[in-house]
Design brief:
Arp2/3 complex 21 kDa subunit ARPC3, 78% helix, two-stranded antiparallel sheet, single chain, mainly alpha
Length: 184
């Protein structure tokens, strides 16, 4: 893939991710408070970051994830958490790029396991940094974040294994055998 295509693909993934995050964030402002924690983690940010990192490499993955967070937060509610969350989401892209280098076959199990491990890492780090940022006791903060963790796990598992796998195959020129994709 040429550099111009890599830049264009990164820009498209960032634009789609930021627009989706802004739209979902705006929608959640009109739902009851009890539903907010279940709806806010719904989105494409982590999936698009994983796609970018896996297909374009760790640097592009980091840039995609961090940019989605920064751009969407500027358009909605930026705060002192923005750079911290941007780095955490960017790390998902780094791990996706490393995953491609370590595992030559991207199959359902690999992407499913990646979705679970990266979501647990991301949500835990977000809760820990938020607790530290707002000087809140960590354990209660993490317990209060359980609904968000569950929703994020479900969201990312579904989107990584469906949208993520299909888009990665499309970008890398996969056949449609459905079982696995050789990334060589």
């Amino acid at each position: 893939m040429t550099n111009s295509k890599r830049i264009a693909l990164t820009a498209v993934l960032i634009a789609v991710g930021a627009l989706a995050r802004i739209s979902i964030g705006s929608f959640t402002m009109f739902v009851p408070t009890l539903l907010y924690a279940w709806l806010i983690p719904v989105g494409l940010t982590e999936t698009l970051t994983f796609i970018s990192g896996y297909t374009l490499g760790p640097v592009a993955g980091f840039v995609t994830g961090a940019s989605i967070i920064v751009i969407s937060d500027i358009a909605t509610i930026p705060g002192p958490w923005t750079p911290l969350i941007a780095v955490i989401i960017g790390v998902i892209g780094v791990f996706a790029g490393i995953t491609r280098k370590l595992i030559q076959q991207l199959d359902f199990r690999t992407i499913a396991l990646s979705s679970i491990l990266l979501t647990l890492m991301s949500e835990t780090l977000q809760n820990v940094t938020s607790a530290l940022l707002f000087n809140t006791p960590m354990i209660p903060y993490i317990i209060a974040g359980t609904p968000t963790m569950i929703a994020a796990l479900a969201n990312n598992f579904i989107l990584f294994t469906t949208v993520g796998l299909r888009v990665i195959r499309m970008i890398l020129g996969s056949g449609s055998n459905g079982n696995h994709y050789a990334t060589k």
